[in-house]
Amino acid sequence: MESASPIIRPLCASDAAAYASLRLCAIDEAPETFLSTREEEEKRTIDEIEARICATANQVVFGAFAGETLVAVTGLRRYPLRPAQQKGFLWGLFVVHTHRRSGIARRLIATAVDQARAMGLTQIALNTGVENVSAIALYRSTGFEAVEDEPCEAAIDDDTDREVEMVLRLG
């Protein structure tokens, strides 16, 4: 790991290939935490990836860069329907192994929270697996609170997943 603190910034079109590569790495590491498979992700075009990561009025994807290398990401999306437009959703947090336990995830979350405030959001929600105790602990330490356990009705590979929804209320 480099000694300089990674730079966090919104991703742009020129980051699409790096994002795609990092996402495949994340899926390989923990496929059960993704809705899509590696095969589905590999089929995405660069245009689709650019549309997914480029900032809009309702979403931004932040990346942490160690030098020129993308080492962590997270996304923030505003709920699009009018009754819920004051709410956001944090998604896709992933840090490569060599940069874990360095504070990058916490910095990405703080950056997303600052962005949520700038967007006028009043709360941010997220979902994570109930078995992912380290993620739950991280989110709790940044102010998120568990609001419910959500059983997943659809079995994947003869296994039922359970998620916990967490919310951070912005004051």
The largest β sheet comes out as:
7 strands, mixed
CATH superfamily: Gcn5-related N-acetyltransferase (GNAT)
What count of domains describes the coordinates?
A: 1
Q: What is the string of helix and strand elements? A: EHHHEEEHEHEE
Query: How large a portion of the residues is in β-strands, by DSSP E?
Result: 25-35%
- The number of helical segments is 5
For this structure, what is the CATH class? Answer: Alpha Beta
Helix content class: 25-40%
What is the fold named in CATH at topology level?
Aminopeptidase
Report what the structure shows.
Keywords: Acyltransferase, Transferase. This protein is of the alpha+beta class. The chain has a single domain, classed as Gcn5-related N-acetyltransferase (GNAT) (Aminopeptidase). The protein has 5 helices and 7 strands. Strands 1-2-3-4-5-7-6 form a 7-stranded mixed β-sheet, sandwiched between helices.
